[in-house]
Amino acid sequence: MNGILERLTRLASSPGPRAAKARAIALDIQAAGPYRWVGLYDVTPEEVVAIAWTGSESPAYPRFPVTKGLSGAAVATGKPVVVQDVTTDARYLTAFGSTRAEAIFPVAVAGRIVGTIDVESDRVNAFGPEDEEFLKACTVILAPLWR
Q1: How far is CA 141 from the centre of its chain?
Q2: Where are the domains of the chain?
Q3: At what angle do helices 129-141 and 18-32 cross, to 10 degrees?
């Protein structure tokens, strides 16, 4: 994992268009684990807005109120929200019908939540402690993307 974290660190701070960097970061995160889909989002005072994702299909909700969904819960608490079976959580906003597990990791800059990393799987109980450790590390090293 160290190699991927080093690559992500370089990407987040590299010059170039933000959307292209964000897409490359999402693809690298996806390749690092058993993740079917990865999205990166901006968080404004009112909305959560997709900036990049893997795959060719956009999420069903590319923007939504900051108070909604699992992302809204992560933003409100400032803590990751990991749901191992989205069918059991009423907060889940269906992005893709095949999603079974979702993990949202908030990104903070100067004490304010400015973004999220959204990782989805088509398997129930997809995320283990290694995934959580990796994704928490990503929130720290990717913060320059949101500065």
Answers
A1: 13
A2: 2-146
A3: 160
Tokens of 55: 């795959």
For the entire predicted model, the pTM comes to 0.95
Letter for the amino acid at 78? G
Tell me whether residue 93 is exposed, middle or buried, using C-beta atoms within 10 angstroms of its C-beta: 0 to 12, 13 to 18, 19 or more.
middle
In 3D space, the residue among 145, 127, 117 whose CA is nearest the CA of residue 39 turns out to be: 117
Q: Cα-Cα-Cα-Cα dihedral of 139, 115, 147, 109, to 10°? A: -60
- The full DSSP string for 34-56 is T-SEEEEEEE-SSEEEEEEESSS
10-60: pLDDT as tens digits: 999 999 999 999 999 999 999 999 899 999 999 999 999 999 999 888 888
Fold annotation for 2-146 = Beta-Lactamase (3.30.450)
> What is the bridge-based pairing of β-strands 112-121 and 37-43?
antiparallel
